[in-house]
Amino acid sequence: MTLKIIEKTGTRTHQTFTKDRYVDASTLAEEHRAIWSDCWLLAGLVSDVAVPGDYFVFELGAEQILVTKDQSGDLHGFFNVCQHRGNLLMGEALGHAQQLRCPYHAWTYDLDGRLKGVPGLDLFAEDPRCAGRDLKPVALDVWNGFVFVHLGDDPMPLKDFLAPVDEILSPFDFGGMTLIEDQTVYLECNWKAVIDNFSELYHVDFLHPQHQRMVDCHNDLVRLFEGGHTGVEVPGATVNPKFPIPEMPTDIQSAQLQSLDLDPNDFKGRVLEVRAAIQDQKRTLGPERGMPYERFTDDQLSDVWQYNLFPNAVLSFTPEHCWLLRPRPHATDPNQCEFDKISLVRFPSTGAGADAKPILGPASRDGAAQTPNARPKRDCFSYEAVISGEKTMTDTIDQDVELLGQVQQGMRSAGFRDVYLNEDEARIQHFHAALDQRLRG
Ligand code: FES
Ligand SMILES: [Fe+2]
Questions:
Q1: Residues lining ligand 1, CB < 6 A?
Q2: Ligand 1 centre distance from Cα of residue 81 (Å)
Q3: C-alpha to C-alpha distance for 366 and 408, rounded to whole angstroms
Q4: Nearest to 256 by CA among 232, 274, 283
Q5: CA nearest 286: which of 359, 354, 216?
Q6: Which atom of ligand 1 is the closest one to the Cα of 87?
Q7: What is the share, in percent, of the chain residues with pLDDT greater than 70?
Q8: Can you tell me whether residue 419 is helix, strand or coil?
Q9: Are 281 and 357 in contact (CB under 8 A)?
Q10: Has residue 297 got a pLDDT over 80?
Q11: Could you say which ligand is closest to the alpha carbon of residue 80?
Q12: Domain 2-38+168-440, second-level architecture
């Protein structure tokens, strides 16, 4: 189903488009119609609505979508709006309730959205419960541990929307991973500047020099899919051969080797052999460590993949972990967005020995020692808190966060007219082509 696979060809291509899509307020309304109301959107985790009564609220610009699990175990999505006078219904981003009660005049709704309680019924000429005042539903479906919603009237089935990537991603079983961290940072940039940033590796050698010690960004494989989805597969547990190859494994490779009971000293002068050794050792140790490595290919055992689901869900993952990176648009300002980083980890299956050590993935960012006792609270903060070092989203993301405000400020300058993209930025081109197609209707 891949439309195009791009290996480094040395082909010189470029594409431009004007900056208005990042800075003009009129774009917000157009995107609301053509993107946010006409695409399946990754709203949250199935694990956040695990038992009847669980709910969460997904915010998207001026809209809020309430996702609930009813008493029969069915999931529902609604606009989070009371049908009496339009107050926002549930004020908490996440919670558990037997019924949904509006704080204004105490109308109550069942978890399936039906209006059931109205104080002062005799004040109404007609019983509001028989007057079409149930919560306004949105389409909802689940895929691979994630809840998706669609705000439009006539959505295509979710499985069709994700068909180009479904089979490739299904072995990773994100639903079998556990949430270990939930962060949101307020950024002063357009949501698409975040997507662009996570759609190319062109900047990595310069902005993230630490990556040359863990992955080979020079030999990445790019995939472009129907519907605007994209993927990049980056060899991991190795070094970037664009730079001098070290004599000994890097600190990051060494930590990975040791987590698999391998001695980094054995790889003196053989740094490019570490990747294959890690693949082999994962196959060997998988059963005793309670990790389902049998369903992955050799490449998947060592590499870092990142798949962007159109329009705004970026999944960066290995067999051991997944980051969901998700920019959400601001309600009124094209120069702002909220950016979520949701970290999931696969813990050893219960059959594994109690002393099974966690296995570190290629970026050594994915080992959490223990399953958290409770769901981690969502931590929301400003980008200034990241720049000052008060908060961190890992070195790599911190570097991106620090940069993104500068990009937006530069784009707003009279001295900048349009972006100018190269072959390494093919995923950006593909994303914007899908965006344009929808905006043109
Ligand atoms: S607005 Fe909700 S009960 Fe009045
Ligand atoms: Fe980056």
A1: 82, 84-85, 87, 102, 104-105, 107
A2: 9
A3: 30
A4: 274
A5: 359
A6: 1
A7: 93
A8: strand
A9: no
A10: yes
A11: 1
A12: Alpha-Beta Complex (3.90)
Cβ-Cβ contacts under 8 Å for 351 (sequence gap 6 or more): 290
Which of 212, 199, 76, 217 lies closest to 136 in space, CA to CA? 76
Q: What is the pLDDT of residues 302-361, one digit of tens each?
A: 999 999 999 999 999 999 999 999 999 999 999 999 999 999 999 988 766 656 666 776
The domains of the chain are located at: 2-38+168-440, 41-161
**pLDDT per residue as tens digits for the range 245-284:** 999 999 999 999 999 999 999 999 999 999 999 999 999 9
Minimum CA distance residue for ligand 1 atom 4: 105
Alpha helices in 80-230 (DSSP H): 158-161, 163-169, 191-197, 204-207
Q: Give the number of the ligand closest to the Cα of residue 407.
A: 2
CA of 401 to the centre of ligand 2 (A): 9
**Ligand 1 mutation pick, 66, 78, 82, max ligand atoms within 8 A of CB:** 82
CB 22 within 8 A of CB 154: no
The residue whose CA is least distant from atom 1 of ligand 1 is 85
Q: Whole-angstrom Cα distance, residue 147 to residue 191?
A: 21
pLDDT tens readout for residues 191-222: 999 999 999 999 999 999 999 899 999 999 99
Task: Write down how long the chain is.
Answer: 441
State in words which class domain 41-161 has. Answer: mainly beta
Q: Which two tokens stand for residue 98?
A: 């037997």
Q: Measured at the alpha carbon of residue 256, what is the angle toward residues 250 and 259, in degrees to the nearest 5?
A: 140
Q: Rounded distance, CA 256 to CA 213, Å? A: 12
Q: Which ligand is nearest to the CA of 106?
A: 1
Which residue has its alpha carbon closest to ligand 1 atom 3? 105
| Token pair of 175 as six digits | 């639903």
Which listed ligand is nearest to 83 at the C-alpha?
1
Q: What is the pTM of this model?
A: 0.95
Q: Which residues surround ligand 2, an ion (CB under 5 A)?
A: 400
Question: If you compute the radius of gyration of the chain from its CA atoms, what whole number of angstroms results?
Answer: 23
Mutate to test the pocket of ligand 1, among 80, 81, 83, 87 (most ligand atoms within 8 A of CB): 87
Q: 88 alpha carbon to ligand 1 midpoint, in Å? A: 8
